[in-house]
Amino acid sequence: MRKWEYKVINNEFPSRRAEENLNKLGAEGWELVTEISVAGLVNRARLIFKREKQNLRK
Predict the structure, then answer these.
(1) Could you give phi then psi for residue 13, rounded to 5 degrees?
(2) Residue 35 falls within a domain, yes or no?
């Protein structure tokens, strides 16, 4: 059975380094699942990523 781990990032837009940061997460295997706007705050979002858990056994 596949197991997943999740990462939640609170991000402020526009960010000068947003593309760089997203590419780094992608290179680490993280996939963006959804973006949630933060109520009452302009240009703020919560980004939720997931990636398959790696088997730590060798």
Answers:
(1) -120, 150
(2) yes
